[in-house]
Here is the input.
Amino acid sequence: MAYPLQPEQENGGEKAAELPRSLPSEAELAMRRYFREKVASRAEGRLWPIRVLPPLMKQTLLHAKAVRQETGQSPWQLLRDCYATCLREESWPAGYYRYRLYRPERRHLAGRFIDERVGFPLLMKLNDPEDVAVLDDKLQFAAACARLGLPHVEVLAYFENGDLAQAAINGPEDLPRDDLFVKSTSLRSGWGVQRWAYDPASQTYRHAGQRLTAGELLRAIGKLSLGEQEEGSAPKRLPFWKRWFSNEKQQEGGDARPYIVQRSMRNHALMAPFTNGALCTVRIVTARPKGGEPQVIVASLRMPTGGSVVDNFVAGGLASPIDLETGQLGPAVYMDPRRPDRDVHPDTGQPIADAVLPFWKEVRELSLRAHRAFPRIATVGWDIAITDDGVRLLEANTGWGFHVVQMAQGKPLGTTALPEMLMSHAV
Here is the structure.
């Protein structure tokens, strides 16, 4: 499969020329030094040339055919260039293909993308641990939102170690006769999420071929929190070779962990062009300099596709860049860069590129209001839903994915104010 944008098309039929390397700013260089000196071990640095080899082989095998169709580069050329880039930029090979750095006209940006290898540990190091504990736990976050008066999705029930530990309901009779979401308080990227559709005719909840009454559903969630899953509901573990050759993370379940129950939110009618019917969310990243006011750094609209009940990038969803001033959307991308970019939604056939996101001003204001409520945190990726009840906070992510927003934007976060803001928390 060929990549969506051909260099010949981008330059009026002529192959794009390689541009001079875009040099990192002082803040970006300081960020890398901090990672090497305060986060990574000395052994990790010494072993990096060896550690990078297995994913280098995997990613090149995955992408070599598509890149050769586009650029004419051989697998050996890709291996050599990707390896050199990973060593020079201290980055994982996946980023080389995700950000299309094999293209001559994009290679000069290689040093400006913030790779997950550096970015994620920095967020864990620089974000305030007490606020992280609240923001990353879905139950504590919902409770904090209620206390602070922030519009959010209410938690109906909380299960831990098989027991109904906390609840806004007294029993099965109080469980809303509506579609419900069941998810872990700690898993990321939509893993472990179950959507139970309510059937008024039979007064049961349906998911993955199961039909349960309200009481049976609550008991099933209790078992889920113990790591037990009903037959047919657990995700199948793919063979090793399929997992190794997949470019998307595979959901695996079975571990004991707390679970919560929430109403299934409905998109506002104006969001219909961007969804298969499941909930869309805006991933909006805010950051603040130490002691300063938060700012919006970057934002993207995440859209569910196909039969997925979640909009997460790793679950096959689309991500479209959002213009921070106007709310205008750009072409949407998949996590797998071999799949073509989308100007229209594959399920609805409605335009994505150049459409304007409804209620963008309200989304921006809610993200900044939420960040002000947690003044010690350096940066957060907020998931905000545009529902028929207004804009609502769904989740907060202190370890938000750098690749999602950078792939959607097609531009590196190193060129934003983020590095300088992060480094202000390192002193």
The longest helix spans residues 53-71. Confidence is low (pLDDT under 50) at residues 1-14, 247-252. The first strand starts at residue 155 and ends at 160.
